[in-house]
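ping. complex inputs:
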Amino acid sequence: AQSVTQPDIHITVSEGASLELRCNYSYGATPYLFWYVQSPGQGLQLLLKYFSGDTLVQGIKGFEAEFKRSQSSFNLRKPSVHWSDAAEYFCAVGAMTGNQFYFGTGTSLTVIP
Amino acid sequence: EADIYQTPRYLVIGTGKKITLECSQTMGHDKMYWYQQDPGMELHLIHYSYGVNSTEKGDLSSESTVSRIRTEHFPLTLESARPSHTSQYLCASRDRATDTQYFGPGTRLTVL
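pong. complex structure:
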C-alpha cells in the first residue's frame, strides 16, 4: 500500500538553529517525492521535489532534502531557520503513471526567538 | 509559479443548503484534483479529472460531485450540506511537463 509517514507531529526550534523534518514512504513504483509548505489559511506551496538523479535536492527558501532509497526516506533540512519558516510541512509521494499523490499528516513547525 | 484560484475562501452555511466551490487555473493543465484537509490529517483525494468531461472519485468517499466542462474550471458541488462536510477543501492542478501539483489557497467550509 502507498503511504507517507511523518513521525513528528510538531517540532519547535530556535531561530537560527538547524532543522530536519522526517519523511518515510511506502510506494510500489519508482517514487516521485515532494515537500510542500502551508501557512495558516493558505494552500500548499511546493518547496522542492525529487524525480531522479542527484539524491540531494535544493529547493526554495534555503531548504534541501535528501532521498535515501535504502531507508525509504526523504528528509527535509535547513541549516538556519528563520521565524518566517513557521508553518505546516507536508511530504508527498506520487508517480508519473499514477493518478494521485499521497500525503503525510504534516509536521507543524514553531520557531522561537 | 502556477495560477490556481479558489472561491470563496471562507464559507459558513446552514445544513441542507446547496453549495458550489469554485476552482480555476490558467495554465492549461489537463489534470485537476480536489482534496479534503482536516487538522492533523493527511490530505484526502475526493475527486480528480484527466481533462474535459473526465471525472473520477478518489479514495475518500464523498457526497460531493464535480464537473469538468472546460479545461480551466473544476467546480465541486454539495447538493445538501451537513455539519460533517465542515473541512478545508483544496484544489490542485498538475503540470504534465514537470509532473508537479500546484495548489490553490483553499476554501474553508463550515456547515452549521
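Residues 24 and 46 of chain A are 18 Å apart (CA to CA).
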